[in-house]
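agent> call fold_tool(seq_1)
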Amino acid sequence: MIKQWIESILDLVYKPFSGWLDKQSFRYLACGGGNTLLDIFIFYISFHYILHEQVVHFPWFAISPYIGAFLIAFCVTFPLGFYLSSNIVFTESTVHSRIQLFRYLMTVLICFFLNYVFIKLFVEGFHFYPTIAKILTTVIVVCFSYLTQRHFTFKVKSTPKNSAS
């Protein structure tokens, strides 16, 4: 029911863009963009209002508030992103769903690492404001994510051509 509701809204919104984008690309941009905006929103709320811009202390280590906010946002947007990608965007994938999930997890872990490195670099190395650092990091990581999801995680196997005449 949720899938049908999301698809009907996307199909309605797609009409003005149909001359510029194919339906799958539009759905990727809409779903990925929505999930990305949610990620940035959760990051902002977590950084300012949940963690109060304070270091998070654990018995054996501590994490900076911007990394803590990143982890909170990740816990929400990972499962939502997989659901949208597998059920709304890449519905023609010939890869089995368990393998999709494994590949999605691998891609996300790489993106997780890239997020960590770029946020640390932008905040600590270049002294950017954390939310700006998150937005710049997101632009870089989304480019990588799109390519890996389209050509690896949710790929469509081509049918072999019959070479016999």
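agent> call fold_tool(seq_2)
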Amino acid sequence: MTRAGVMMAVVAVLGSAMMPQAAGAQILGSDAAACANGGGPAILARIEGLKDRKGNLKLELYPANDEDFLQDDGVLVRAGKTFRRVQVPTPAGNGPIAMCIRVPHPGRYALLFTHDRDGKNKFNFWSDGAGFPANTKLGRRKPPLASALIDVPNGVANTTIRAQYLRGLGGFGPVE
């Protein structure tokens, strides 16, 4: 292979590795336009490891501090603090799902993903799934803020979140 051929191959590999999703995959959510063509500021979350294709998928954005992390949305909104939610019906098919959530301005935020399998819009510990950008095993405890933190630039921050579900006495973990 010529030197130019090698360079073109390297550029192709690097370019595809930087792509947030497979070509042609649809970005879901009411904020999808914020992630299109590197817009932003927003977070493009690639969701992997769904247990099934039932119910709804939800991304929630919180301030990046322990006091406000996972706080009731009404409390945050009344206090004028950052809170945003994007919810979509779980699409049919298989493979990862791309969801977008816009942020008010570049900075550090906490991000929560949930899979509301029964569609009741209330987290069911026994059947629903959850995940965070750090992808550390959740176990049986409340997730620490550090597992949810994500820095968002002027453009789009990309993250991959592996869904976790109750897995017996060990608590929450990815579906194998």
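agent> summarizing second result for user.
The helical segments are 3-18, 32-35, 73-78. The first strand starts at residue 27 and ends at 28.
agent> awaiting next instruction.
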